[in-house]
Amino acid sequence: MSPDPSGENPSGEVPAALFDLAVNRAAAALRGLRPADPDRALAAWHARTRFARRVSLNAVKAALSSRPMEGDWHWSGGPQGSWQSGRAPFP
């Protein structure tokens, strides 16, 4: 079964590394775009990013909402992870 294009009902368990990648790439996209409507920009990014559709958009938003405002941070540890100081070990 293919993942739901909205990302709200992904099929199967999401590997921790994939979740981390989705959150880190979403954070980078928002940082680069600086959109007036972050929710809309994030939904568009999620819809066109093939791997991200395996991760719930709401889970990505929840992780992003707890990101510290200043400095370089990356998400690590999968859905139960947290923000770690510094850049992600891979893009």
Describe the overall structure.
This protein has 91 residues and is mostly helical. The chain is built from 3 helices and 2 strands; from the N terminus they run αααββ. A two-stranded antiparallel sheet has the order 1-2. α1 (16-33) crosses α2 and α1 crosses α3. The termini are far apart.
What general form does the structure show? globular
pLDDT averaged residue by residue:
86
Oligomeric assembly: single chain
- Low-confidence parts: 1-5
Strand order of the largest sheet: 1-2
Tally of separate helices: 3
Class inferred from helices and paired strands: mainly alpha
* Approximate helicity band: 40-55%
Our Rg estimate from Cα atoms comes to: 12 Å
Main sheet summary: 2 strands, antiparallel
String of helices and strands: HHHEE
**What proportion strand?**
5-15%
Distance between the termini: 28 Å
By DSSP, the count of extended strands is 2
Question: How is this fold's topology laid out?
Answer:
Layout: H1 16-33, H2 38-48, H3 57-65, E1 73-76, E2 82-85
Antiparallel strand pairs: 1-2
Helix pairs in contact: 1-2, 1-3
